[in-house]
């Protein structure tokens, strides 16, 4: 079985899957459940200098695995955390031998007030969120926390900033690592029957999370990894072992899970770690660290852009089921796929767009690996 334990920020995580901030870690008891659910390390919901007044309803299942939410930060007062919740979370962390991360927001003054109190509670690391900051406040805010505590600090980046590579460059001198990304928005969904908002915020706006966020999150991890060697917690749409592998290949050192835990329960962390371990076994890797940065190393400087190739997808005639889906999605009329027969690709008409390859759920259509394609016209 592939080795899944990792040492990050100077701490041992029994596997790289930790909770990301949300109601899944909204109390000490929930954090203890995440530990029992197999999380490799622990994280507590974001707190600020006062309790959040959260509009209700604040969560809506948008598609099978996605959520819209209008949560802010913890609805518990910071005193509740300092008097009770962190103690419960710390006890769970000790019992399972896991590092514990506190999450703080938002201004420089908030972080100066909260950081030393968190450190005094014996918490191992602090994540701070830039979600409500103006980009011009990034450096001062990070510096304020850096100067207030001696434990490692992690900047959690939000995708509405745009260029997260640039944000990482600004924050890098002050932080020990990054978490990418927070939920994205604002977005809007409407209850059609009642022409009403599905969420309780002023205009019904909410922030999207779960699988639709994943490609944006993977790209963000990659962007940040291109400008900083510091550890990155990849967050956004992770629900399966293969998602973990993808984030690691982009440059992540840990991954965080929120939406999948909310929709599937707290055992999701251990399941994702187990699935990733199975994937590694199947692909001949012995340690999760072997896949870390694989994509980053190969494509950190980009790839040769191919605007025309003479290769077109090949059909594995033995395995073609004759489902005809490839013909239906071919808008270049290059595929003939008789029902229950074998698909055929007409090379002269094929645009090499790739859609047929990606929709074939049987893996019957395949491009040649890029490095084996010999006849290329490069622009
Ligand atoms: C209901 C809900 C509440 C959240 N609360 C916080 C929070 O307090 N602090 C924070 O940094 N991120 C918060 N997030 C963002 C998540 O931690 C995570 O970054 C984002 O949802 C993407 O990961 P996911 O697709 O696994 O949910 C929240 C997300 C959801 C869905």
Layout of strands and helices, then pairs:
Blueprint: E1 6-8, E2 11-13, E3 17-19, H1 28-36, E4 42-47, E5 59-63, E6 66-69, H2 78-96, E7 100-104, H3 108-120, E8 125-129, H4 138-148, E9 153-157, H5 164-171, E10 177-180, E11 184-188, E12 190-191, E13 196-197, E14 205-209, H6 214-227, E15 232-235, H7 241-250, E16 254-257, H8 259-264, H9 268-282, H10 294-299, E17 306-309, E18 314-315, H11 325-329, E19 335-336, E20 344-345, H12 355-359, E21 365-366, E22 376-378
Parallel strand pairs: 3-16, 4-7, 7-8, 8-9, 9-10, 10-15, 15-16
Antiparallel strand pairs: 1-2, 5-6, 6-14, 11-14, 12-13, 17-22, 18-21, 19-20
Helix pairs in contact: 1-2, 3-4, 5-6, 6-7, 7-9
The structure holds flavin mononucleotide (FMN).
Q: Key terms for this structure?
A:
single chain; 379 residues; alpha/beta; TIM Barrel; Alpha-Beta Plaits; 8-stranded parallel β-sheet; 4-stranded antiparallel β-sheet; 12 helices; 22 strands; disordered C terminus; binds flavin mononucleotide
């Amino acid at each position: 079985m592939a080795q899944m334990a990792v040492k990050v920020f100077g701490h041992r995580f029994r596997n790289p899957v930790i909770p990301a901030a949300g109601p899944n870690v909204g109390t000490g008891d929930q954090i203890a459940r995440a530990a029992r659910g197999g999380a490799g390390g622990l994280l507590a919901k974001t707190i600020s200098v006062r309790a959040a007044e959260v509009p209700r309803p604040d969560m809506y299942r948008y598609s099978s695995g996605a959520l819209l939410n209008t949560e802010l930060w913890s609805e518990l007062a910071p005193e509740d955390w300092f008097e009770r919740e962190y103690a419960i979370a710390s006890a769970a962390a000790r019992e399972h031998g896991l590092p514990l991360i506190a999450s703080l927001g938002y201004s420089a003054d908030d972080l100066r007030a909260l950081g030393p109190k968190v450190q005094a509670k014996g918490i191992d690391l602090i994540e701070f969120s830039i979600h409500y900051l103006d980009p011009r406040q990034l450096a001062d805010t990070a510096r304020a926390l850096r100067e207030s505590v001696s434990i490692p600090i992690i900047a959690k980046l939000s995708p509405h900033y745009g260029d997260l590579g640039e944000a990482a460059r600004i924050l890098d001198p002050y932080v020990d690592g990054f978490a990418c990304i927070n939920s994205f928005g604002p977005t809007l969904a409407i209850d059609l029957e009642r022409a009403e908002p599905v969420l309780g915020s002023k205009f019904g706006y909410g922030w999207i999370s779960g699988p639709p966020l994943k490609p944006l999150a993977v790209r963000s991890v990659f962007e940040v990894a291109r400008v900083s060697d510091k550890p990155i917690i990849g967050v956004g749409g992770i629900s399966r072992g293969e998602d973990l592998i993808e984030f690691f290949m982009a440059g992540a050192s840990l991954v965080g899970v929120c939406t999948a835990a909310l929709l599937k329960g707290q055992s999701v962390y251990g399941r994702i770690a187990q699935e990733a371990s199975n994937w590694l076994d199947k692909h001949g890797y012995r340690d999760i660290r072997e896949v870390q940065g694989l994509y980053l190393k190969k494509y950190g400087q980009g790839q040769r852009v191919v605007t025309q190739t003479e290769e077109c997808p090949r059909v594995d005639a033995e395995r073609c089921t004759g489902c005809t889906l490839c013909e239906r999605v071919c808008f270049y009329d290059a595929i003939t796929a008789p029902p229950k027969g074998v698909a055929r690709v007409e090379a002269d008409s094929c645009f090499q767009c790739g859609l047929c390859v990606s929709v074939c759920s049987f893996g019957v259509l395949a491009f040649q690996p890029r490095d084996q394609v010999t006849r290329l016209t490069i622009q």
